[in-house]
Structure formats: structure tokens, C-alpha cells
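Lab channel / #folding
Pinned by the channel admin:
"Please post every new chain as: sequence first, then the C-alpha cells as a reply. Keep commentary short and put observations after the output so the thread stays searchable."

First post following the new format, from NK:
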Amino acid sequence: MPATTFFTPEIFVFLKQLKRNNDRDWFAKNKQRYEECVVKPALAFITEFAPHLFDISPNFVADARPTRGSLFRIYRDTRFSHDKRPYKTHVGIHFLHAKGKDVHAPLFYLHLEPGGCFAAAGVWHPDNMTLTKIRTAIVSRPEEWKKVRGKASLEGDKLKKPPRGFNPEHPFVEDLKLKSFVSSVMLDEDKICSDKFLRDYSAACKKMAPLVEFTTKALGLKY
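Reply from TO:
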């Protein structure tokens, strides 16, 4: 089967213009463009990625529904924000664990934004109970965690001090301070618009899979 091209440079043209014209009138006039250059290719990509995701783990979901699926809504939630701009200026696609109820569950993620595209994976901004489970797993399975750390660089905010109840002298104390357990791989816009992108994104997810597997099992879920 020949490789497929999903996204075109038009997606980045649209997002740049949306950033300059982030209002409802402009978006209404360009809604059809949004459907053609963002929604349709994104849903097609999600559909085609599904078997690759299953090979990585059968317990993560690629949901190609146009709403409440893997594709994030373009609309921002401005109810509690001082920033009242109505639209996101990036495209987000998430592949959650089947038992995950929100974006703070273990996931694989794709972020498309002019000048800032990346694949990411792990657990982002979880609640305290989830953080404690992951930290406890690191302490109880240090050799396994060491292998994970050898394959993935972690990023994000940290506590200033070790979390309460954990040894400040632990060899992975800097990891225990993390507020998220996330790794990422930067992506090139030209490659995103090529017929090799499905292969490249799958490879990025496989590279980060040990982190997802560890955090998933730490939460008592099947990987």
C-alpha cells in the first residue's frame, strides 16, 4: 500500500492567519477552510494511526469521531480566563488510555503549530494522587525506572523541594520533584506534510512508549 500524505502546508497557513484574526467573524468566514485543511486530514490521520497505536499498546484509543474523539476542539474555554480569544491557534490530537477520563491520563499526543510541532507522551499535570502513585513506583522499581530514563528525557515544572514523604537523598529525587511525567520529540513541518509522517510519528511514539508503559502500570492500568 502506498504511503499517504495527510496534512498540507495549508494547515500552517490557516493557523498563522487564525492567530492574526482570532475572532468569530473571521472564523465563520473561514470555517470551510478549517474543515478542509484541519479536520478532514486530522480525522484521516487518526484512522490510519489506529493500527500502529494498537501495535504499541492495545489499550490506547484512536478515536476518529469529529467531536469528543482524539481531535481536540479548536474552541478555547474562556469562562475562567482573562484571555477571551475564542480559538486555539494550534491543533492537538490525543490518544488516551481506554480507561482515561481526561487529558491528565496516560497518553500519546500530537501538537501542530507553526514553528512548534511535536509529538509527546506520558502523563501531563496529573492530580496529587496520581503523582504519588507514579513517584511510589519510581521508588519501588528503581531499576525499571532507570531503563525508562535511559530512553526518554523528561521535561516540565518541578517542585522546589522533594515531595513530602519521599527521601530527599533518593538517586532519582529530581524526577520525584516533577509535576508531570512527559517526554517529547520535535517534528519538522515539511515532514508533517510528507507521505512519511505516519511512519515518523509512529516511530516517535515507540521511542516514548517505555515512559507511557511505566506510568500506565504505576496507575494500576493495563498496558
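NK: The chain has one domain: 10-73+83-218.
TO: also worth noting, The beta strands are 91-96, 107-112, 117-123, 181-187.
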